[in-house]
Amino acid sequence: MEILTNFDLLRYGRLANRERERRHGDRAYYVINFHLNPTNICVYRCMFCAFRRDEGEAGAYFFEVPHAVEHCVEAHRRLGFTEIHMVGGMHPTRHWEYSLDLLRALKAALPQVHLKAFTAVEIQFFARVTGLPVEAVLERMVDAGLDSLPGGGAEIFAPRVRRAICAEKASAEEWLSVHRLAHRMGLKSTSTMLYGHIERPEEVVDHILRIRDLQDETSGFNVFIPLAFHPENTNFESTRRPTTGLRDLKMLVLSRLLLDNVSHIKAYWIMLGEKLSQVALSFGVDDFDGTVGEEKITHMAGATTPQELPTERIRRIIREAGRVPVQRDSLYDLLEMAGVA
Ligand code: SF4
């Protein structure tokens, strides 16, 4: 595991860049998307979470379906996004039927918009509260309008870490099982890893290799996203500092080099910042995420990045990195190449 601690960034970065260019040439992808977090009320208490609240606590919120839909329709008029990325807390009572109603209403209001919604943790929670098998939960959600799954909730798979930071929610095996079942049903999903808290180097490598193993089995992940932990307003506020740029780049490089079977590596600019994400486009990264629209989760943990980026700003960031901006859809089909001439 020396590679994570004694890592020559430029040497391995060149290798990761070569691999990135072999796969994607000069293209750098982005999506015009919008984040919807319908509630931050959550029955779980993950140690790293600055977003969650108890019902009735100051700062707790819950969007009724009409309000959530109206909010998205209004934002769509302004932003013209192609994807809604929707994740939220595990509400103690408004969970399963509410989520189906929300999917149906969003799909009816914005039929052309891809709904990437509900992490494996949420899917597992719905299975727990309804007693339905995970397959049945997924089937009902697809019928209601679900198009793909986001990759949140993976954190770090190692049991030692999960026991310490998120003991209540879906285990690593449950997270992987939800994605396996989704892939078998033909759904695509994204994959993530949260680093910068209590994980050890060998647990990072184990996490990435477990993603690679499932990808060998299903080919259902379309991207891997290393997520840099923001400690502000969390239980780690006094004991952990935010990650550094060098660490962030190393995670991206390592991910590109280890995940030979995942096409895309994403720099999530909300967590990394615009400038480091731009640099990352030469360190194994080919995907800049997107406009985002309205980010709450990382900003409640102290992120100082904007809550959204205009498309033209993203294109400029990509162009100035020497890459060609390519607008993609949620499944990485090409929608538009900008500024090629
Ligand atoms: S990370 Fe998700 S599951 Fe954990 S407390 Fe926060 S909202 Fe709840």
What features would you describe in this structure?
The chain is of the alpha/beta class. The chain has one domain: TIM Barrel. Helix content is 42%, strand content 14%. The chain has 13 helices and ten strands. The strands form three sheets. A four-stranded mixed sheet has the order 8-1-9-10, with helices on one face. It starts with a helix and ends with a strand. Iron/sulfur cluster binds next to loops. Iron/sulfur cluster (SF4) binds next to loops.
Keywords, please?
341 residues; 3-stranded parallel beta sheet; alpha/beta; TIM Barrel; globular; binds iron/sulfur cluster; 13 helices
CATH homologous superfamily caption: Aldolase class I
- Which oligomeric state applies? single chain
The CATH C-level class name? Alpha Beta
Structural class: alpha/beta
Low-confidence parts lasting 5 or more residues at pLDDT below 50?
none
What would the average pLDDT be, to the nearest integer?
A: 95
Radius of gyration: 19 Å
Spatial strand order of the main sheet: 8-1-9-10
Q: Assess the beta-strand content as a share of residues.
A: 5-15%
Helix content: 40-55%
Number of helices: 13
Name every ligand kind in the structure: iron/sulfur cluster
What best-fitting shape do the alpha-carbon axes yield?
globular
Annotated CATH topology: TIM Barrel
- DSSP E strands, number: 10
Order of helices and strands: HHEEHEHEHHHHEHEHEHHEHEE
CATH architect. name: Alpha-Beta Barrel
Distance between the termini: 44 Å
* Main beta sheet: 4 strands, mixed
Overall tally of domains: 1
